[in-house]
Specification:
The structure is a homodimer. By secondary structure, the first copy, chain A, is α/β, with parallel strands linked by helices. The longest helix of chain A is centred in the N-terminal third of the chain and has 19 residues. In chain A, 58% of the residues are buried. Chains A and B meet through helix 2, helix 3, helix 4, helix 5 and helix 6 of A and helix 2, helix 3, helix 4, helix 5 and helix 6 of B.
């Protein structure tokens, strides 16, 4: 978690912006431009999404440490959406941002290894050496003729880390659902330890019905607390220089009492805190997640930042400026409650 | 769930084959062929995966009603892997198979809608009509020049259901993780009801540590049973002609006592049963999931079928034949315990 914490200290801002580009949040002019070029297609929509994200990343990277693209909104545009996700991850990292893939993955051990490789690790592609293989070099970006527009762009997806070794989606961290227990989580923890990455396990989520299971008591202790103890435990061998482990927890801003309780019981666990703003959580509600250095958590806002251009007095052509101003206001709001020492 | 049940009755076989193409399960000759053409790349690996799946689907479709591609193994090959997943879904459906996307998705309501659109629904891509749009027709498969090999193949991803309406990944059913509670599940249930699709919610998973949370008792009742009651309830408005709802449950073959218990408490819920074979579950263990007509569940096998060519006496060039024989043996094994009336 150190890399994230250092970005937070550098920007003085414990905010992560959720890149959740539901199509109705993408500025019309961006979409129309792509529909003109590529028709009313998933490809056009995905290209508009990427341009939206790129503009947001450019505007936000000086003041916001991290982005959190939510996979659902990319999967909803099919293969083309996944390309936009890949390009978004790559671009945010180019601009120095920490990227949390919000995918809430989780499966049995052997399968969780696949997910861990996909988002936090790498895959080795190696011939037996007994047959000749293509000697075409792998190019990561191959620009076509006619660079006037991006229509001709040919791109190879996957980051080449070393010969024969590819990062399929080179994110810094991943959200994880641990309903399946330890053997479904270990592959992610191992990937964190080997590759300096992080995970955030769902503990107490921000949605209204999170309590249906999470608040139920086992031996007098709610499920979210049991999950919290498991998380604290899973991370125990990965404590970084700032005192937090590579295994974080998702704890909703909409449940301030639980934040306080969980912080007390999980002193080594960094919190990813959704639910600020649109869902109702306030800076006061989340203050208890933070330690005396103003560290310990990162607060997500999605719609409140990326769709700030929809507010009165704003203009969709200045979506990036509106997002910047909204992020600055959020930073100020948070920093009134959290003493982040420089 | 009727469409799945009718396929099961037609084939006389309550089996779903898990298309979990970890690279070490893909026959070497298929991989080498692609490495020769495309180098040691994710693209080459993904193409080998698709060819493997295609061979398996061709061999299995006469005797197996359904396939269950596990997203982790496709995501592990990045964007190229997702293309292979898309093509696998499309091809299996072309060959008449029912496709369960094993993705274990789950999120808060507004986000779960995105996942539901991606796998069970559709997305509308529509211009405002105020600006001209490209009139290039959308072609679902555009073959390039030189059809000798598939190198030139250009393909548009996403199934066009109606003008402006696309199915991003047109599966029949999806596995869902409901740790977040009802508001995270409703969008999936709604998509099932609108589009004649199904979901399978994780109740009692087949892995060794599933009990860490799932077996813990709340008011004397284990978590998996609470989850089971929620599932039975979520499905109550979607009962089909065979008496089962669109909201199924994942219940592991490795826990026969729990299968019996859950079947008694969830009479309207269809079970997806992993854990047969490699993980240790037997036909006897799962028999209690089935009703007197031999209906009520579908049993998954992945490695045991798709990697049957690795068994003694088999040959990787006949991977499809080996899979066919293994599937036939599994069918016979299951049908000794389950009386599936024709």
């Amino acid at each position: 978690m150190d890399r994230l914490i250092e970005r937070i200290i550098k920007t003085g801002n414990p905010t992560v912006v959720g890149l959740d580009p539901a199509l109705d949040l993408v500025p019309t002019y961006l979409k129309e431009k792509e529909y003109q070029k590529n028709g009313e297609t998933l490809k056009a929509a995905a290209k508009a999404v990427y341009k939206f994200n790129k503009g947001l990343i450019d505007a936000l990277c000086p003041i916001v440490p991290a982005v959190k693209p939510q996979l659902a909104f990319y999967e909803a545009l099919g293969v083309e959406g996944i390309k936009a996700f890949y390009k978004t991850v790559e671009y945010a990292k180019e601009r120095g941002m920490y990227v949390i893939a919000d995918a809430k993955r989780g499966d049995i051990g052997s399968t969780a290894e696949g997910y861990a490789s996909a988002f936090l690790g790498s895959v080795t592609i190696k011939s037996t050496g007994k047959t000749p293989i293509s000697t075409k070099p792998v190019k990561l970006k191959k620009e076509g003729k006619g660079e006037k527009n991006d229509k001709k762009e040919k791109r190879v997806y996957g980051q080449l880390l070393a010969p024969n070794e590819y990062a399929p989606f080179p994110a810094d961290a991943l959200t994880v659902n641990a309903y399946l227990g330890t053997d479904g989580v270990k592959p992610f923890v191992n990937a964190c330890a080997s590759n300096d990455k992080g995970i955030f396990v769902l503990v107490k989520t921000s949605n209204p019905s999170s309590g249906e299971l999470q608040d139920k008591c086992i031996d007098g202790i709610p499920v979210y607390e049991h999950m919290g103890s498991m998380v604290e435990n899973w991370g125990s061998d990965t404590i970084g220089t700032h005192g937090y482990s590579a295994v974080g927890a998702v704890v909703g801003a909409t449940y301030p009492e639980q934040i306080k309780e969980l912080r007390a019981k999980m002193p080594k666990t960094f919190f990813l805190i959704p639910g600020y703003g649109a869902q109702g959580g306030t800076a006061k509600d989340i203050a208890a997640a933070f330690d005396s250095n103003g560290l310990g958590g990162i607060v997500n806002s999605s719609r409140g930042i990326i769709a700030a251009y929809k507010n009165a007095g704003e203009n969709e052509h200045d979506f990036a400026g509106a997002a910047f101003r909204a992020a600055l206001a959020m930073k100020d709001d948070l920093c009134r409650e959290i003493n982040l020492s420089k």
